[in-house]
Amino acid sequence: MNEQIKKALLQAGDDSNIKTTKHAAGGSINESCFVETDNRKYFIKFHPEAPDRFFELEARGLELIRETNSIAVPEVFTYTDESNSAYLVMEWIDGAPSADTDRILGDRIAAMHQTFGEKHGFDDDTFIGSLPQTNGLFSSWLEYYRDQRLAAQLRMGIDKGRMTGKRRGRMETLLEDLGKWIPDDAAPSYLHGDLWGGNWLAGPGGEPYVIDPSFLYGDRHFELAFTEVFGGYSSDFYRAYQEQFPLSPDYEDIKPLYQLYYLLVHLNMFGEAYGRSVDTILKRYAG
Fold first, then answer.
1. Confidence (pTM)
2. What b/e string do you get for 30-51 counting C-beta neighbours within 10 Å, with b at 16 or more?
3. What digits encode the pLDDT tens for the residues 190-204?
4. Exactly one of 194, 212, 250, 253 is catalytic; which is it?
């Protein structure tokens, strides 16, 4: 690992003395570490079996969010997706939440969502966790969400033996009827794409940063719905968001259909622990 760290730092342009290295929390997919040199502090993620372009796409997503001038992201110094030696070198974000952090986070996410692309989806295939996401650019949000997100997870679930019987039948019925609820003409906001509570942190002065994006353009309500699946966001966050960019009156009606995608992802990644939640939504909308 020490040799990998040295190699990564050299590629980042830092050949100074390494003062400290230690393990850092970085999710279940990557091995992560904190490194301090004479020059600065770094967060480095390693993934020896990274899929093609894994860190490139993460770095690109962070840069697209940075370009909105809405919410802070860590600076990326370098990355490689070289086989058996993939890594991403970023600045180390050090701070603690202030009394205003949640409110600022809600305000900044709303500002990011008020930056728009021309079409829905993305021009690169990406990843959600370790699962591949096939994208493409679509004029119709309904078409993109149905075909590239929900239908893709259905196919994956069939292959894994997790979408069978009534569950599969209800899912197929839902896809046929999805236009009853999901808008065709939603505005294509810039979306983080994986905005669970563990993918933001407080930096200096309590300034919120977002990390680990799975970037796309799409309906902002899709993003907000996911923030409610696993928690990690306070009433101050939602209040500030709503003041900056009020949600659609039908948000509560379509929220479970947007949460369904992420529950399907977890079903396909982790198994039947998420099956009941999937089935509850399918029964509500597909009988």
1. 0.95
2. bbbbbbebeeeebbbbbbeebe
3. 999 999 999 999 999
4. 194
Tokens of 100: 């205003």
* Helix and strand totals (H; E) in the chain: 10, 13
Distance CA 30, CA 32 (A): 6
Whether 194 is catalytic = yes
pLDDT tens digits, 24-57:
876 567 789 999 999 999 999 998 888 899 999 9
- Residue 156 near residue 271, CB atoms below 8 Å: no
Tokens 């050090």 correspond to what residue? 94
Each residue of 235-258: b (16+ CB within 10 Å) or e?
ebbbebbeeebeeeeeeeebbbbb
Give percent of the chain with pLDDT exceeding 70. Answer: 99
